[in-house]
């Protein structure tokens, strides 16, 4: 093998590493934001919306990621929404992984002592302030 071929292979490997890091970072960020948003909404919302979010999380956790990628990549163009492969993967992996993280965050929010929440409310904090200043830092 000549050194020119080795150099070309090395450049392909570097490009692949860059793409892998890009996909990993964007999917993690979208999953984290989705999971945190759903967990906080489940905590703040009235009961009917909580039940809707519970069902949504339950359904999304049951869908295999590959099926979700196929549905987004091949299904969205059939209704007139065209997305790049990176956006399709980011959207599908972000939603599925975000539903798993929503359950993790829900469990973490339930572990905060009720006494701490009561004390914060007695101190004059609103529900959103309690979540931001008391519950989220303890997760």
From TrEMBL:
Subcellular location: Cell inner membrane; Cell membrane
Main location: membrane
Tagged with keyword Membrane: yes
Protein name: ABC transporter permease subunit
Membrane topology, from the record: Multi-pass membrane protein
PROSITE patterns given in the database record: ABC_TM1 (PS50928)
Family, as annotated: Belongs to the binding-protein-dependent transport system permease family. HisMQ subfamily.
């Amino acid at each position: 093998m000549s050194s020119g071929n080795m150099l070309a292979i090395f450049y392909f490997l570097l490009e692949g590493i860059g793409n892998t890091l890009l996909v990993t970072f964007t999917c993690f960020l979208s999953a984290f934001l989705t999971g945190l948003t759903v967990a906080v909404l489940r905590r703040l919302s009235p009961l009917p919306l909580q039940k809707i979010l519970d069902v949504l999380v339950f359904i999304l956790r049951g869908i295999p990621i590959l099926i979700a990628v196929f549905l987004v990549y091949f299904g969205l163009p059939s209704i007139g929404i065209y997305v790049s492969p990176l956006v399709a993967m980011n959207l599908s992996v972000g939603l599925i992984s975000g539903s798993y993280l929503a359950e993790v965050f829900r469990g973490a929010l339930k572990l905060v002592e009720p006494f701490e929440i009561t004390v914060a409310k007695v101190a004059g904090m609103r529900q959103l302030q309690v979540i931001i200043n008391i519950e989220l830092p303890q997760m």
